[in-house]
């Protein structure tokens, strides 16, 4: 049997995004939720998670705080922030996000990762991995698929950090597959990718499902992709494909 984590990232981004993510959870396929703790829809997201006693909520580190009047960072913003700020300054922001998550939800994150994979940056990786190791928390690995607009990383450096800190993670990470004309084709693409996974191994598939209105369009260009992810996760075909290929749906704590 093969294990698969289905993760919906950006919970808390906006209230409309939250609604799309909740739909995928209620469809019975999303097993992990990545929460942005300082964003426009965080309060609603936390209220929903606590009301439904969700334990499978991870921390999706972002470095920005819309409560302080900051806008969500784009790729160039992350390049600049990670270059300009010292390691101590970055780790203090991360520490504040972790503390707010723990205080607000009353639990540790089920997993942890950084927006645009900032959790692999040399200035932040040891702090984040120390926290994860101490609390036995799953950390998202690097992608086993083609992706764009991500913070560059040294694969060997990151591999060694996982070994050094004895961090648990999946064997594979997939995501970012779309076919806007025919969602069934996207399912077929994922099926081909998942063929890499052998019995006894695990994979995480990363999605960004959501509903997008005019407000969301001012914040991100990742619009039709979010709608497509929501439709895919709510479709019966995708879940049937996983079952057909002997995958069982699991949470990060079950890896």
Please count the beta strands (DSSP E, at least 2 residues each): 8
Distance between the termini: 13 Å
Fraction of residues in helices?
Answer: 40-55%
Strand percent estimate: 5-15%
Structural class: alpha/beta
Number of DSSP helices? 10
Radius of gyration: 17 Å
Order of helices and strands: EHEHEHHEHEHEHEHHHE
What would you say this structure looks like, in words?
The protein has helices at 15-26, 42-51, 75-84, 87-105, 125-134, 155-165, 183-194, 214-217, 224-233, 236-244, and strands at residues 2-11, 32-35, 57-61, 111-114, 138-139, 172-175, 202-207, 247-249. Strands 1, 2, 3, 4, 5, 6, 7 and 8 form an eight-stranded parallel beta sheet that branches. α5 (125-134) links the parallel β4 and β5 (138-139). The chain has 255 residues and is an alpha/beta fold. The longest helix is centred in the middle third of the chain and has 19 residues, at 87-105.
Question: What brief labels describe this structure?
Answer:
255 residues, alpha/beta, eight-stranded parallel β-sheet, globular
Topology:
Layout: E1 2-11, H1 15-26, E2 32-35, H2 42-51, E3 57-61, H3 75-84, H4 87-105, E4 111-114, H5 125-134, E5 138-139, H6 155-165, E6 172-175, H7 183-194, E7 202-207, H8 214-217, H9 224-233, H10 236-244, E8 247-249
Parallel strand pairs: 1-2, 1-7, 1-8, 2-3, 3-4, 4-5, 6-7
Describe this structure in a few short sentences.
With 255 residues, the protein is α/β, with parallel strands linked by helices. The protein has helices at residues 15-26, 42-51, 75-84, 87-105, 125-134, 155-165, 183-194, 214-217, 224-233, 236-244, and strands spanning 2-11, 32-35, 57-61, 111-114, 138-139, 172-175, 202-207, 247-249. The radius of gyration is 17 Å and the shape is globular.
């Amino acid at each position: 049997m093969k294990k698969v984590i289905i993760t919906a990232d950006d919970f808390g981004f906006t209230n409309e995004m939250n609604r799309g993510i909740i739909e995928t959870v209620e469809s019975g396929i999303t097993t992990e939720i990545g929460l942005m703790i300082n964003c426009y829809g965080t309060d609603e997201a936390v209220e929903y998670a606590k009301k439904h006693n969700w334990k499978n909520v991870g921390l999706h580190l972002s470095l920005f705080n819309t409560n302080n009047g900051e806008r969500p960072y784009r790729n160039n913003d992350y390049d600049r922030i990670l270059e300009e700020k010292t390691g101590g300054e970055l780790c203090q922001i991360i520490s504040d996000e972790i503390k707010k998550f723990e205080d607000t939800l009353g639990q540790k994150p089920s997993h942890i990762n950084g927006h645009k994979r900032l959790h692999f940056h040399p200035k932040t990786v040891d702090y984040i991995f120390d926290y994860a190791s101490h609390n036995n928390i799953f950390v998202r690995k690097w992608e086993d698929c083609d992706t764009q607009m991500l913070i560059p990383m040294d694969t060997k450096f990151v591999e060694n950090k996982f070994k050094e800190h004895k961090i648990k993670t999946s064997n594979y990470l997939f995501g970012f597959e779309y076919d806007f004309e025919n969602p069934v084709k996207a399912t077929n693409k994922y099926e081909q990718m998942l063929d890499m996974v052998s019995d006894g191994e695990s994979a995480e598939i990363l999605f960004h499902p959501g509903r997008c209105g005019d407000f969301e369009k001012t914040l991100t260009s990742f619009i039709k992709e979010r709608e497509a992810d929501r439709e895919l996760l709510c479709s019966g075909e995708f879940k049937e494909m996983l079952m057909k290929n002997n995958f069982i749906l699991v949470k990060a704590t079950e890896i």
